[in-house]
Design goal:
mainly alpha; Arc Repressor Mutant, subunit A; 7 helices; about 75% helix; about 0% strand
């Protein structure tokens, strides 16, 4: 089940978590390639002054060009990753805001539903024990589970459930659930 509170609090990330993506290793690789290109350039200049063979100069030129291309490619990739990370930060904040709004709306709806259930229990004149049993049955617990929660016997829970059904004019647990869910689950209107 989606829990917006857990979603918004448990990710353990601060607001700038994504914009720092890849900075350490990517920047180190960029500096490494730039350093290699610089060292090869220095070697090329020295070799060209001392009259080294043209083949050797050509090989070093290719190595330097690869190092420069690697530097540029890594730098562009880092910039794209940072831009994407910034957009993900924006999207995460929007999702957090939507989750907070959903939680607020759901809390309001649940409080209203809880109040409506309490009012109906009052109309049926349920005892406090019957109210508790009815509520636990509505939550989907079995008679055995209700007995465990209430620390009573299963036959006692069955008798209290029967009293709830009798006072409510219902036949069973399905009718009890349907009584409260019927108005919540409105049919979809086709456009």
């Amino acid at each position: 089940m989606f829990d917006p509170q857990r979603f918004s609090e448990s990710d353990g990330l601060n607001d700038a978590h994504l914009t720092n993506v890849g900075r350490g290793p990517a920047q180190a690789a960029i500096w490494l390639f730039a350093g290699i290109a610089s060292l090869v350039l220095i070697d090329l200049v020295g070799d060209s002054r001392t009259g080294v063979e043209a083949g050797h100069i050509a090989v070093e030129t290719v190595v330097m060009a690869c190092a420069v291309a690697g530097t540029v490619a890594l730098w562009r990739g880092l910039r794209r990753a940072q831009a994407r990370a910034a957009q993900l930060d924006v999207d995460l904040e929007a999702a957090r805001a939507a989750a907070a709004q959903f939680k607020a709306d759901a809390d309001d709806a649940l409080q209203g539903l809880g109040a409506a259930i309490d009012r109906q229990f009052d109309r049926w004149s349920l005892t406090s024990a019957e109210r508790e049993v009815a509520l636990l049955l509505l939550k989907g617990l079995s008679h055995r589970e209700v007995a465990g929660v209430r620390q009573t016997s299963e036959p006692t829970v069955r008798q209290q459930a029967l009293a709830v059904y009798r006072k409510a004019g219902l036949r069973n647990r399905s009718d009890l659930s349907a009584f409260f869910l019927e108005d919540l689950l409105l049919p979809r209107v086709s456009a």
